[in-house]
UniProtKB/TrEMBL annotation:
It is a multi-pass membrane protein. Residues 132-514 form the Amino acid transporter transmembrane domain. This is Amino acid transporter transmembrane domain-containing protein. Signal peptide: none annotated. Keywords: Membrane, Transmembrane, Transmembrane helix. Coiled coil: none annotated.
Length: 602
């Protein structure tokens, strides 16, 4: 690493030198420059990606030691209060600050013919210009979610005290482990020459094109469904706040229209302050609902959509005199015979740790990706402590009558409205974040790859972004409006997508990364002077050697972890489908009509 740091400071990357790699001064370059490669070039090997990744990490470490990354050296304060972050500065190969030329950011570098005139330094500086987010911004971006805290009480009501606490603890710790696994893969594959822009890029570089397509499709499904879920939850909150006087379809549609405007924010660093704001709003909602729940009865009129109804309708059904059963709790599963409802409840808890799907995108926009772990572990600890206390507290006071989201289940109208209004603002920010990443995934993997669309820093790219946002949010509204069972919808998305991105895929990716990295021997690897990769062996022999070399026990752990996550996902999908079948056995209201599903008065 010391040698790499020296190269970053003094000599730069040999591959970037004008004279290196030429045949006897004849001007014949022995390699293809990074900017001349296809966006996802199958000929680029792991060894080449890894070589340039080490270069990038050495440069970042050098800049950090010399105090050049001012936004990353403010200590703990930068985690609580994210800085604005530089948008026009980047460090060149020699570690000096340089202003990104506007003529470079105005070029459509996604067209190979135009990249031919771009120098190596301009190419890498264009990559640096996109990296402005800080660890503080990452902390708030990860904790900017509306369904995590307010779905957890529902999860406890369907699993009971003991299983709920145990499962939430295990899932929380393993979510942090998954974040570390993804971080290791990113640090070993991302560089300024070949930046990793999304989850699918990691899959492509470690497993191939099929994995990239699979990951991108699943990620796109999750992101647009997450936006759809929030549109519907906000629609329900607005209909309840209006005392059901406003048409339910309009209540949902207004949030889709709001997304047209808030979704115009393109960079994650600009989301930092919004995310900061959303986290404190969520805490305020939690305090309000906790205080009100301790001094008022649950919202009995909405018992039909409560956790108890999904476990056993008798738990929340009023008797002949119209008296509802008292609030009850369970040390274990409330109804062991209804295992599916417990799994569905668990899927609500899984939503709290669903941010891992975005971790790669977050790292790709960080000035210093090394600091991602600081923001990530801080966010996971915050999520675990605050959400756990909130979930247990609400379960203690409202028991089987808990709603999903929980702020819909308090009975005093004034406080109910206050919680709903605050939740709507926070949820809209979260939806804008999901939509931001969702559009970027589609833009980078469809518009750029197949239609040579310009980068989002280009004027044409910005205009395309403006046009795509309304289309994306309109599709999300249609999806959410067509699926009326909110909890069932959340459970299905959790099992199908969130478990994969948070628990199944990280060990799957890290297994390949660890085997490929450990298989490297002295004298092997990428030669920047010739562009050639030297390997002593290939095939199964090399794979087995990489598996058993070094920390082989981590490879065994990755296999067990991945298989266990896949089994859990299978159970979750089964339980969600069974629940949806049960719900759809009766006619359901959706967001295409005026009657709210929360209004049981008629």
């Amino acid at each position: 690493m010391a040698q790499l740091a020296t190269m970053a400071l003094d000599g730069g990357d040999p591959r970037l030198n004008d004279k290196e790699g030429e045949f006897a001064g004849q001007g014949m370059v022995a390699y293809t420059r990074p900017q001349m490669r296809a966006l996802h070039d199958k000929s680029i090997t792991f060894e080449e990606y890894h070589y340039f990744a080490l270069q990038a990490r050495a440069e970042e470490d050098s800049n950090h030691r010399n105090g050049r990354n001012v936004t990353e050296t403010r200590g703990f304060l930068s985690t609580l209060i994210p800085g604005k972050g530089p948008s026009s500065l980047a460090s060149n190969e020699k570690g000096h600050e340089s202003t990104i030329p506007t003529d470079v950011t105005d070029l459509n570098l996604n067209v190979p013919g135009r990249r031919a005139s771009v120098t190596d330094e301009e190419w890498t500086n264009a990559s640096r210009a996109c990296r402005t987010a800080t660890a503080g911004a990452i902390f708030f971006l990860i904790t900017t979610d509306i369904l995590g805290p307010f779905g957890l009480p529902y999860a406890f009501a369907t699993t009971g005290w003991g299983p709920g606490v145990a499962l939430y603890t295990v899932f929380g710790f393993m979510a942090g482990v998954s974040g570390w696994l993804l971080w290791e893969c990113f640090m070993g594959l991302d560089s300024y020459q070949y930046p990793v822009k999304g989850y699918g890029d990691l899959a492509f570089r470690l497993w191939g094109q099929w994995a990239r397509y699979s990951f991108n499709i699943l990620q796109s499904i999750q992101l647009i469904c997450s936006v759809a879920v929030i549109i519907i939850s906000n629609g329900e909150a607005l209909s309840e706040a209006s005392q059901f006087k406003l048409c339910y379809a309009v209540c949902c549609l207004v949030w889709a229209l709001a997304g047209f405007f808030l979704g115009q924010i393109r960079t994650l660093q600009k989301f930092g302050w919004l995310a900061n704001f959303a986290v404190w709003i969520n805490l305020m909602i939690m305090f309000i609902t906790m205080g009100v729940a301790a001094h008022s009865a649950p919202l009995y009129s909405a018992a039909g959509s409560s956790a108890g109804y999904s476990v056993n309708p008798d738990l929340v059904t009023a008797n002949a005199a119209g008296v509802f059963p008292p609030v009850s709790h369970s040390a274990g599963l409330p109804d062991p015979s209804n295992f599916g409802s417990a799994i569905n409840g668990l899927m609500q808890a899984v939503y709290a740790y669903g941010g891992a799907m975005l971790f790669t995108e977050f790292m790709s926009e960080m000035k210093r990706p090394y600091d991602f772990l600081k923001g990530m572990w801080g966010a996971q600890f915050f999520i675990y402590i605050c959400y756990m206390l909130y979930g247990l507290y609400m379960y203690a006071y409202q028991g089987q009558y808990l709603q999903n989201p929980s702020y819909l289940g308090i009975s005093p109208y004034n406080w109910q409205t206050a919680g709903n209004v605050l939740a709507m603002v926070s949820a809209l920010i979260a939806a804008a974040l999901y939509g931001n990443i969702g559009v970027k995934v589609l833009y980078n993997n469809v518009a750029v790859e197949f239609f040579r669309a310009p980068p989002l820093t280009h004027k044409s790219g910005k205009l395309l972004w403006v046009a795509l946002i309304p289309i994306y949010w309109s599709i999300a509204f249609i999806i959410g409006a067509a699926i009326p069972d909110f909890s069932g919808f959340v459970s299905f998305i959790s099992a199908l997508c969130i478990i994969q991105f948070t628990y199944s895929f990280p060990p799957f990716l890290h297994l390949a990364f660890n085997v490929k990295k450990n298989a490297l021997r002295g004298g092997e690897g990428f030669d920047p002077a010739t562009g050639q990769v030297t390997l002593q062996d290939t095939g199964v022999k090399r794979m087995m050697r990489g598996f058993m070399a070094g920390n082989w026990y981590l490879n065994v752990f990755n296999i067990i972890y991945c298989l266990g996550a896949l089994a859990t996902a299978g159970l979750g999908i089964w339980a969600a489908v069974e629940n949806l079948i049960l719900i759809y056995a009766e006619p359901q209201l959706n967001a295409f009509g005026c009657h709210s599903p929360l209004d049981v008065s008629s």
